Amino acid sequence: MISYIIRRLLLVVPTLIAIVTINFFIIQVAPGGPVDQLIAKLQGMDSGVMEQVTGSKTELTQTNMKEKSTYRGAQGLDPEVIAEIERRFGFDKPIHVRYFKMLKDFICFDFGDSLFRGRSVIELIVERIPVSVSLGLWSTLIIHLVCIPLGIKKALKHSSRFDVWTSTVIIIGNAIPVFLFAILLIILFAGGTYFNWFPLRGLVSVNFDQLSLVGKILDYFWHMALPTLALVIGGFATLTFLTKNSFLDEISKQYVVTARAKGLTENRILYGHVFRNAMILVIASFPSAFIGLFFTGSMLIEVIFSLDGMGLLGFQATLQRDFPLMFSTLYIFTLMGLILSIISDITYTIVDPRIDFEKRG
C-alpha cells in the first residue's frame, strides 16, 4: 500500500501542471484581462489619480497618441501609461516566459501578490480559508452523520411508511434551491419578519476576543448555525439514497442468507459484514461531496450571510481577472482534491481490507 501511495503522490505533480497549464492558456486568450480591467477603471479619472495608480509621471493627454494600443477601451490614454500598466502586471513579457515563471513560483508555493487588492495571495487565502473550512467541514459532517444512519434504516424498512415519508421530505428538501432556503432562514430567524435569534453577518461577533473559551465556542456555532443549515438541506438526498441502495443491494446477496442460516444476529450481519461492503460506494463519493461543499457550494451562502470565504474570493478574482489570485485558488483547490482522492483510497482499504490497490497497480 505504501508504494501505491507514493505512486499516487508522484502523479499529483504532473496532474497539477496539466490542469494549471490548460487553464493558463485558455485564460490568456480570453478577452477582458487585468490590463483591460484597469484601463476601464482609469477611464474618466484625472491625471493625478492615474499617476498614483500607474506610478508614471507621463502627461496624460487625450490627443497625443504615439501608437495604437492593442487593448480595447484604451483610446484616450497615453501609450506610456499602457506600457507601465503592462509592466506592472507582467504583460510586457512573452506568454511562454510568464507561463514558466508561474510554474516555478507555484512549485515553491510563491503565489505573488493580488493585482487589484494590494496584498499577497497567501494573506488573502489564509484570511478567507477558515470560513470555507467551517462551512465545508460542518456541512459534510452533519450530512454524513444524518444520511448514513437514515439510509441504513430506510434499507431495513424498505417500502414501509417510514421509508415513504422520509423519502418525500428528502426530495422536497433537495428541490429547494440553497439560496432560497437561506433567504427563508434569514426571514424566519435572523431579524426578518419573525424572530431575531441568529446573527446575519460574519463568522464571529465583534467582541469575540473578549469572550471566554466557552463563550467563543458558543459564539462561533451561533454564527455557523444558519449558513450550515442552509448548505445541508439540499445535500441529504444523494447520500441517503446512495446508502440505502447500497445496503439493499448487499442485503439481497447470498452471503447474507448464509450468515442468517448460521444463526448470526441481524446486528452482527449488518455491521460486521454488510456495512463494509455497502460503505465502499459511500466513501467513493466523499471527496467530490466535500470539495463541492467546501468551495463551489458555499459561494452563494457566503454572499447571502456576508461571509468572506474561498468560494467568494475565487469568484471575485475571476470577475476581476486577477490572474495570480485565480490561478492560486485553482492550484489549491486541485491540490486538495487530489489529496482527498488519495485519502479516499486509503479509507477503502480500512473499510474493506480485501481491496489492494498495490496489486492492481
From TrEMBL:
<dbReference type="GO" id="GO:0005886">
    <property type="term" value="C:plasma membrane"/>
</dbReference>
<dbReference type="GO" id="GO:0042884">
    <property type="term" value="P:microcin transport"/>
</dbReference>
<keyword id="KW-0812">Transmembrane</keyword>
<keyword id="KW-1133">Transmembrane helix</keyword>
<keyword id="KW-0997">Cell inner membrane</keyword>
<keyword id="KW-0813">Transport</keyword>
<feature type="transmembrane region" description="Helical">
    <location>
        <begin position="325"/>
        <end position="351"/>
    </location>
</feature>
<comment type="similarity">
    <text>Belongs to the binding-protein-dependent transport system permease family.</text>
</comment>
<feature type="domain" description="ABC transmembrane type-1">
    <location>
        <begin position="129"/>
        <end position="344"/>
    </location>
</feature>
<feature type="transmembrane region" description="Helical">
    <location>
        <begin position="164"/>
        <end position="190"/>
    </location>
</feature>
<dbReference type="InterPro" id="IPR000515">
    <property type="entry name" value="MetI-like"/>
</dbReference>
<dbReference type="Pfam" id="PF00528">
    <property type="entry name" value="BPD_transp_1"/>
</dbReference>
<dbReference type="InterPro" id="IPR035906">
    <property type="entry name" value="MetI-like_sf"/>
</dbReference>
<keyword id="KW-1003">Cell membrane</keyword>
<feature type="transmembrane region" description="Helical">
    <location>
        <begin position="278"/>
        <end position="305"/>
    </location>
</feature>
<dbReference type="GO" id="GO:0055085">
    <property type="term" value="P:transmembrane transport"/>
</dbReference>
<keyword id="KW-0472">Membrane</keyword>
<feature type="transmembrane region" description="Helical">
    <location>
        <begin position="129"/>
        <end position="152"/>
    </location>
</feature>
<protein>
    <submittedName>
        <fullName>ABC-type oligopeptide transporter, inner membrane component</fullName>
    </submittedName>
</protein>
<feature type="transmembrane region" description="Helical">
    <location>
        <begin position="9"/>
        <end position="30"/>
    </location>
</feature>
<feature type="transmembrane region" description="Helical">
    <location>
        <begin position="220"/>
        <end position="243"/>
    </location>
</feature>
